[in-house]
Amino acid sequence: MKITVVGAGAVGATCADNIARRELAEEVVLLDIKDGLSEGKALDMLQASTLLDCDVKITGSSNNYELTANSDVVVITSGIPRKPGMTREDLIGTNANIVKGVTENILKHSPDAIFVIISNPMDTMTYLALKSSGLPKNRIIGLGGILDSARFKTYLSLALKCSPNDLQGVVIGGHGDTTMIPLTRLATYSGVPVGHFLDAETLQKVAADTMVGGATLTKLIGTSAWYAPGAAGAALVESIVRDQKRVIPCCVYLEGEYGQSDICLGVPVVIGRNGWERIIDFELNEEEQAAFNKSADAVRNMNDILKTL
Ligand SMILES: NC(=O)c1ccc[n+]([C@@H]2O[C@H](COP(=O)([O-])OP(=O)(O)OC[C@H]3O[C@@H](n4cnc5c(N)ncnc54)[C@H](O)[C@@H]3O)[C@@H](O)[C@H]2O)c1
Question: Fewer CB within 10 Å, N side or C side of the chain?
Fold first, then answer.
């Protein structure tokens, strides 16, 4: 198994590090456009692996795509992150060119790869990667819901004063501060609906904190977060390479599911060796479906910007 991570910045390097530590592949390649950055970080990780008991070949590549040849999975994190006060949508012009170019370059050397798209605005970048590559829809997976759900479970565990390991909670819709939908109705604490333990006001606050989870970190750190996004990338890759068939909320191409078509949006999907294998098309209640439709409208507006670039 060979995995390439494009973008050796905060998210890409953390993702590659998590992939290596979990020995998800025999070979990991980190590629960046900045000379030396990926080689340096790959060498640092290789040295760390001697202390961590993991045996993975990690190499860096300064924009040489030949080194990525025959990758089974490619994670795209290249692009600019947001700064305080910016939305993910502000990044579209710059990142669209980067994601399109990177996808083309990767496909020249790894025609069978499964793509995980992390660059923001992720829903639109996933749609762009799918449309510009012409790949089968199951091989393009946008990462957003798995991270947003981790944030949702974090805030729930703080409110419940419990272990996040006992929580189930899913965030669907777009990966934006106003477009994501934490499904509080369906979240459970060891099988019991969280509404049994938390009042409506607390649940609303948990949902609101989740939605601005990324912005809160951007404000604190001065740039967007990387530990949880990198770990989320590795967890998603693990379900692919180990064919775990985990149900993970991911941004995938919809053709009528959840009442939406010709759009990439976050829904629960089964993730295995073939990429995303099946959408869990669960019936939402009226309020949730209305929020999902509103989220789709916002993402569609963003996708329209692609036509003007
Ligand atoms: N989907 C998510 O949940 C999620 C979470 C966090 C961050 N992000 C996004 O991930 C992206 C990366 O964030 P970051 O914090 O790692 O940024 P960063 O600036 O630390 O790293 C980005 C890297 O991409 C590289 N790059 C730029 N153009 C490139 C190209 N054409 N080819 C190869 N490499 C190129 C840069 O040199 C840089 O090293 C941003 O768009 C950010 O908004 C998404």
Answer: C
